[in-house]
Amino acid sequence: MKNAFHLLVLALSFSLLPQPALAAGGPDLLAPYLTIQETLAKDSVEGVAEAARALEKASSSAPGAKEIATAARTLAHAKTLADARNGFKQLSAPMTAWAATAKPAEVQTVYCSMAKAKWLQKKGAIRNPYYGTGMLECGELQKN
Fold it and tell me: What burial class does residue 113 get, using C-beta atoms within 10 Å of its C-beta: 0-12 exposed, 13-18 middle, 19+ buried?
């Protein structure tokens, strides 16, 4: 009984610790962003507008919310792959700034010197959203 009490106290203590910044936006912010990144890396725009609208809605509680929402709204209206990639570039600036403070564990920041832009992606092989299949692995991992 005494051990159960100590475990309960310990669990409650951890729950009172400050939560990481990921709570501000978190998965609701990352999921649509990563969908866009993966789609553009495949030279497609299918589902990009929907994901951008979801990202705009999810951004309200995130640091940099105004910049993220504005860029997501612009991206949602992109008609061509080139426009979507340019919109994603504008979106990635505030998203990488957010990630620098939130430090989400499941993503890495990558920089493309040809596009002169960063992006976030799931950990693993580089998948360049700016040049897609033509230069899929072009990019340099950045220190998070």
Answer: exposed
Span 78-105, pLDDT tens digits: 999 999 999 999 999 999 999 999 999 8
pLDDT digits (tens, 9 = 90+) for 36-77: 999 999 999 999 999 999 999 999 878 889 999 999 999 999
Rounded to 5 degrees, what angle do the CA atoms 107, 109, 111 make? 150
Amino acid at position 40, single letter: L
**Are 91 and 68 contacting, i.e. CB atoms less than 8 angstroms apart?**
yes
Paired with 114 in beta bridges are none
Cβ–Cβ under 8 Å, residues 144 and 111: no
Contact between 59 and 29 under an 8 Å Cβ cutoff? The reply is: yes
Can you tell me whether residue 70 is helix, strand or coil? helix
- Beta-carbon contacts of residue 55 (< 8 Å; ≥ 6 apart): 29, 32, 33, 36, 68, 72, 91
User: CB–CB of 25/59 below 8 Å?
Assistant: yes
